[in-house]
Amino acid sequence: MTDIDPAPDTLTAPGCPAYPDAVPLAGLEYQQTPSELYRSLRRRHGPVAPVLLDGDIPAWLVLGYTEVTYVTSHDDLFARDSRRWNQWHAIPADWPLLPYVGHQPSVLFAEGEEHRRRAGVITQALAGIDQFELARDCRQLAGRLIAGFAGSGRAELMSGYAHALPMRAAVRFCGMPDGSPETQGLVEDLRISLDAAEGDDPVAAYTRVGERIHRLVREKRERPGPDVTSRMLTHPAGLSDEETVQDLISVIAAAQQPTANWIGNTLRLLLTDERFAVNVSGGRLSVGEALNEVLWLDTPTQNFIGRWAVHDTQLGGRQIRAGDCLVLGLAAANTDPQIWPEAHVGAENSAHLSFSNGEHRCPYPAPLLADVIARTAIETLLERLPDLVLEVEPGELTWRPSIWMRGLNDLPVLFTPVAP
């Protein structure tokens, strides 16, 4: 870990983007159609725009594909340790984004050799998951969930399926019982901490998540098994319990919320776009193509906070000061007109930034495992309920009011009832 002394004179450093036309990233009218926001910001500011986080805290939103790639490829200029931030003096203890940026001894904030050590443990632990067994487990989980609503002829797929399946898969491969009330509470607290709705307390929720994962780590120290947690604890790198807890939280959070919204966003595409609705069952356009198109156009992780400038530098024509916070605009970068001429976004390649880029991207094989979970969930649903249709008009579907995650509030469907 880089040794950064959060001394008072550092915390009150004046370097911050302060523009009268900075756009707030909270309470946006654009939350249902963020692409309009990104287009507007590009027109006004170019590939790097001044924005305001919750509480009018200044930051930079990196919109350009080239610029996001540059930031994520240059850890020497834009690093992950948030203790560099020049705005800590203005951050209250109950700031809603604190679970995102409050420094933790986790792989997310580690740098250099320490990050490589921690990421290597996660990589090897995830590599121990047999993808064929994961697909089999997901088919079984999907079958049980579908059986719960198949006889009714209608379902709400976000809460009853898209969120439930990756949650159960993730807690299972981490060694937790997938149906216990405690596990359900863990998943709800993860949602609150990473994508809080009005009235939620993300800081308290994150504290409860840590307490539950601490118990899991203690249990696996005493009784290891064939699971991710046990493999992390027995890795030669010798992670401490606290390091394991923090990195497990990162693994479970990444496996659950983004994957759930990937499933939901892809089901929406399949049910509303006639290219897919007409052709998926006929095999001309595949579920895999729909999954990939969603990563370009409706990626679950819209924006990621963040990177912190190591010293004064320039990016996209902007003067970035040491300690400034940069928000990675992954969704904006994926639809950057500089890489998609004539506003045509194709799904024929996988060069999107949905899993980020550089040393701090999602560690291999996490994207492959997420694909197994999402693809199996969708294919199993379409096989079991082949006449699935939306219960409402496409325009009636609403998105969660979040600038960070792109996911539907609900996805109501109708189908011919099937005996479980």
From TrEMBL:
Q: Name one GO molecular function term.
A: oxidoreductase activity, acting on paired donors, with incorporation or reduction of molecular oxygen
Residues in the signal sequence: none
Q: Which domain of life is it from?
A: Bacteria
Tell me which stretches of the chain form a coiled coil: none
What PANTHER family would the database entry show?
Answer: CYTOCHROME P450 YJIB-RELATED, P450, PUTATIVE (EUROFUNG)-RELATED
Its family?
Belongs to the cytochrome P450 family.
Q: State what protein this is by name.
A: Cytochrome P450
Naturally occurring in which organism (per UniProt): Streptomyces tagetis
From the broadest rank down, the organism's phylogenetic lineage runs: Bacteria, Bacillati, Actinomycetota, Actinomycetes, Kitasatosporales
